[in-house]
Design brief:
Rossmann fold; 128 residues; globular
Length: 128
């Protein structure tokens, strides 16, 4: 399997052992990555749920997750995706995930079915 980019919903499903977590475990046997934008979403949700930063940092190494810095190229690609995904109502985080995958020529794993409707030339798979 090539590199797989996780969106926030997929990583949260793995951490919280929700339905679909097995797909993330399987992907983790290869190369999985997440953008810093999506990681910030995950950490925010977990902290809001009562986890400490230290607890979160102790969980993530199990995935051997590559954290991809959100740089200028990604910012432009994310903005460029707005026009083609506007009708789907995708958030900045959704578009950041898709932009990361496009730039890195990777697939996306998500728990958010709306992303499946993004016709942007990226392999997008739903874990549920």
């Amino acid at each position: 399997m090539n590199e797989v980019i996780l969106d926030a919903s997929a990583l949260l499903a793995f951490i919280q052992q929700e339905p679909g977590a097995k797909h993330i475990e399987e992907a983790a046997k290869g190369h999985v990555a997440i953008s810093t934008i999506n990681l910030a979403e995950v950490v925010t949700k977990l902290i809001e749920g009562g986890m400490s930063k230290e607890e979160i940092q102790s969980i993530l190494p199990a995935l051997n997750l590559t954290v991809v810095p959100f740089d200028e190229e990604m910012a432009y690609e994310t903005a460029n995706l707005r026009a083609s995904t506007r009708t789907l109502g995708l958030s900045l985080g959704d578009r950041a995930c898709l932009a990361t995958a496009r730039i890195r020529k990777a697939s996306v794993l998500t728990a958010d079915k709306i992303l499946l409707r993004a016709n942007i030339g990226v392999d997008i798979r739903c874990i549920r």
